[in-house]
Amino acid sequence: KDSVSNTEVDEVAQPFKNITRRLESLASSIGRTIPLPPTSELEQWKAATEAESIGKAISSQKDILVEAPIWVVIYLLSCKVRSPQDAMAAVNLMLRIFHRAERDEKAAMILLSIQVLAQQNVSGPVHKLVRLFLVLDLGHPTIQFNILLRNMSRLRSSPSVAKATTEVLQAMDERGIELHFQTYTSLLTNQLVNLELAKMLEQRMVQDDVKPDLQQLTAYLRIFARGGAVHSAARYLNLIKIEKEERGKLAPYGVSVSEDQIEVQPSRVGRSAVTGHNTMFLRSFGADSNAAFQFLRQMVDHESKGTYKPKPLKQTRFGPAARKSRLPGRRTIRGA
C-alpha cells in the first residue's frame, strides 16, 4: 500500500519538477520568475504540457488552450517549438491570450516568441511583436530591453529586422535605458547589423563611455569593410593594432588613408604581420583593385624588407567627390 502511494506521488511530483525547473530556468531569458503552478493545474493541463510539440498540443486541445493559464503557454513556448510551423502557431496562440496576461507576463511571452522565431529562422512577425513590446509598461525595462535585443541578434538578417532593431535602439536612447556590454557584442557579431546600425552603436558607446573590446573592434572592422566605408574600417584596423600592441601580441599592419595615397603602418613596439584583420580590411576597397594592390604590395614589402616609401595612387576614391552612387547591385566605396 505504501509503495503504491509513493508511486502515485512520484507520478505527480516528477512532471511538476520538470515544469518547475523549466519555469525557474526562464528567469535569465525573460527577466522575471514565473510563479509555480499548483498541482491541480498541472494535472488539468498535463495533456498539453506532455505533448511532443506545441503544434500537436494545439491540435489535440483545439481551442481549449486559449483558456489555459499563462504559465502553460509560456512553458510550451519555451520548450515545445520544433519547427517553423510550430513557431508561427506559438506566436498566434500567444497573441490570442495576450490580453489576459499581466504586465511582466506580456513582456515574457514576447521575448520568448522572438527567441523561438530566431531558433526556427522565422522573422515575419518580429516587427509586429517589437512594436507591441515598445508600448508595454515594463516592470524591469533595462533587463527586458537588453534581452529583447540579444534575442533579436539571433534572427536572420532582413530589412524588417534591421528596421525593428533600429526602433528598439531609438526607444532605449529616448528613455535613457542602458545598453549592456554583452548586448553590444551580440548585436555587432550578428549579420543583421548594417552601416546605419553600426554607427548608432558607435554613438551609444561614446555616449555611455564604453570602451569596445577586441571582439567588438573586429566586428566594427568587418561591418565597415563590408559596407565599403574605407576610413571607418581603417580606424578600427588601427585600434585593433593598438590593442594587440598593448597586450604584447603580434599586431596586424595598420594603415593611413588619405585622398591621394594609402600607407601601411607597421607596429612601432613589436613585430607586425599580415593577419586576418588585414584581409578583412581589404574588403573595404570593393572593386578598386588598384588600391587593394597598393595595400597588399606595401605589406609584402614590409614583410620582406621592412621598409617602404608609399607612392601616390593613380586613381583615388577616398575623397568626398568619390562618394557617388553606382549601378544597383554594385557596391559604393564610402569614406565614412
Using the CA coordinates, give the radius of gyration: 26 Å
> Which percent band covers the strand fraction?
under 5%
Helical content band: 55-70%
Would you report the number of β strands?
4
How many H/I helical runs? Answer: 17
Helix/strand/pairing category: mainly alpha
- What kind of sheet is the major sheet? 2 strands, parallel
Neighbour order of strands in the largest sheet: 1-4
Regions with little confidence, pLDDT below 50 for 5+ residues: 1-12, 319-336
State the separation between the terminal residues, measured CA to CA. 79 Å
Backbone shape: elongated
Mean pLDDT: 84
Order of helices and strands: HHHHHHHHHHHHHHHEEEEHH
Please provide a written account of the structure.
There is one protein chain. The chain is mostly helical. 59% of the residues lie in helices and 4% in strands. The chain has 17 helices and four strands. It has helices at residues 2-25, 27-30, 39-44, 46-49, 54-61, 70-79, 84-97, 103-119, 126-134, 141-152, 159-175, 181-188, 195-207, 214-226, 230-246, 276-282, 289-304, and strands at residues 251-252, 254-257, 262-265, 272-273. The protein has a two-stranded parallel ribbon. Helix 6 (70-79) runs parallel beside helix 8, helix 7 (84-97) packs antiparallel against helix 8 and helix 8 (103-119) packs parallel to helix 10. The N and C termini lie far apart (79 Å). Residues 1-12 and 319-336 have low confidence and may be disordered.
